[in-house]
Amino acid sequence: MPSTLPPVSPNLFASDGPILTQQMFPNYPVLQPDRSMTIQPSTSREGMSSYSCTVPGIRFCSIKPEAASCKERAFQKPARQGKDCRNKKDRELHSLQDATDTMKGHEWTRRWVEGVPDDISHWASTETRKVRVTEGYTKDAVELRVRQFVPQDGDSLERSWVHDGVKKRVIIPAYAIVNLEEAKSAYSSYISCSFVECCKKILFGKDKLLWATYGAALRVTRDPMAGDKEKELLKKALQLWMAVRMTTKSTVIVGEETLGMTPDIMDDTSPLRGKIPLPPVMGAQIELVLIHQIQSNLRREMLENLQTITQANKQGTWFTTYLITFILLHNVALLCQHDASYARKHGMKSRFAREDMVREYQLGANILLAYFHYCNKGIHPFSTECKEQDLTTLAALNEQRAQFIRQTKAHIEKHRRGVIKGGKSWQKIRDSHDYENDFYYISQLFEENWMPQPTI
To answer: Origin, by domain of life (predicted)?
Structure first.
């Protein structure tokens, strides 16, 4: 590993943007999560409180800000807070939750309802084929071994979509992945090697604040002056971010092996027109691998480490805390975008496909924001009134990081005034409840008197 960082523009807000190269993000060992690790279901809202109920100095409840009991507890001593209002830590997990908990009636299979990986045992053929699949975020594809299987009750053998209010469907061959452990290894390797390319693909053409901040996060992972815990925390967050993105976009088959399907199998009204779709059960297997084998362990470890850093409240970790929180809050907006798109794709009348899950995302965002504003100790680092001395008190920044914060402050002012070309002011975004906007949650990082926004 090189001992120095590769050349990069000192101004991450320059017109050409940050230089994102694979050299900046080397292949790092992929965590191999416990096979038994599964996403724990969240409990009911009754009996819940925000994290702020257990953190002294936070004067609100991000779960029920209007609740009198929570308001009363906010002014109690820390030892007494939260007795009747205890939050399960799973709330925080929803800020980086997967977005593929299938809507009732849209399930691809009922084989793995508990989320425990298990290979298929009843096959219709002895022939094994190799297919290459991709979600389109990178130039590479993942190779998987597949085989025809014997369908059972609950297995979907068709792909469907809605066009002009009419549901359309097409029959798909019954193929499935032969070995889920092999698939996990293939996807883990793919994610660890491809994050930079995925990041560039998703952020291309978006606001400078987004790609500049992600670029700063990439630099920290290679900064020899950064602590090992900070670097590993950011690496896990970025790897997890990509894994979540992969579950919010349709995966298709590419290459010569198409399992007997032709590019015209989906007609011109389908979002996948001209592409080879995944067999439904195979798609369910990929989700199983990504969500319950790769995402689950990364999510919990990353958030536990984040909590350790934020509670330690050290000057040297403030910058990393900011970057992590920024990425997680942007993820919430991306998840909302996906849920709204899914609802439109399937002709649902609701704004979001799963409003209960979107509500959980928003609660998780409020908890993360409570963490961040608590760690700022009453200092507003992104305000025009914040002096260099105040910033030094809050965070031990080297000149490069301090310059990045100054550039961020200048860009934030443009957003606040609504002078960003083609964009709405942040206040208008919040007033219009534009949850899918990239900045609905991120903008709340920069509020001087932040209060949690209501959920849907």
So the answer is: Eukaryota
Between CA 218 and CA 234 the distance in angstroms is 8
Helix (H, G, I), strand (E, B) or coil at 287: helix
Which of left, alpha, beta for 91 (phi over 0: left; psi -120 to 50: alpha)? alpha
Q: Is 324 helix (H, G, I), strand (E, B) or coil?
A: helix
- Cβ distance 350 to 343 under 8 Å? yes
Interhelix angle 208-221/180-203, nearest 10 degrees = 130
Mean pLDDT of the chain: 79
- The answer to whether 358 and 339 have CB atoms below 8 angstroms apart is yes
3-class DSSP state of 433: coil
The token duo for 24 is: 């900046």
Judged against a pLDDT cut of 70, whether residue 72 lies above it is answered with: no
Task: Tell the burial category of 17 from Cβ atoms under 10 Å away from its Cβ (0-12, 13-18, 19+).
Answer: middle
> What does the alpha-carbon distance between residue 412 and residue 67 come to, in Å, rounded to a whole number?
32
> What distance, in Å, lies between the first and last C-alpha atoms of the chain?
47
Report the Cα 290 to chain-centroid distance in Å. Answer: 13
Q: Let me know the angle formed at the C-alpha of 250 by 244 and 255, rounded to the nearest 5 degrees.
A: 115
Tokens of 83: 């007795």
Rounded-to-integer distance, Cα 114 and Cα 94, Å: 18
Q: Residue 183 in contact with residue 285, Cβ under 8 Å?
A: yes
pLDDT at position 216 over 90: yes
State residue 366's pLDDT score: 94
Identify the residue whose tokens are 């029959």: 171
pLDDT at 443 over 70: yes
pLDDT, average across residues 6-11:
39
Query: For 8-12, 83-87, 154-158, 322-326, which range has the lowest pLDDT when averaged over its residues?
Result: 83-87
Write phi, then psi, for 48 (nearest 5 degrees): -90, 150
Q: 202 or 36: whose pLDDT is higher?
A: 202
CA distance 204 to 102: 29
Q: Which residue has the higher pLDDT, 314 or 178?
A: 178
Write down the pTM of the prediction: 0.77
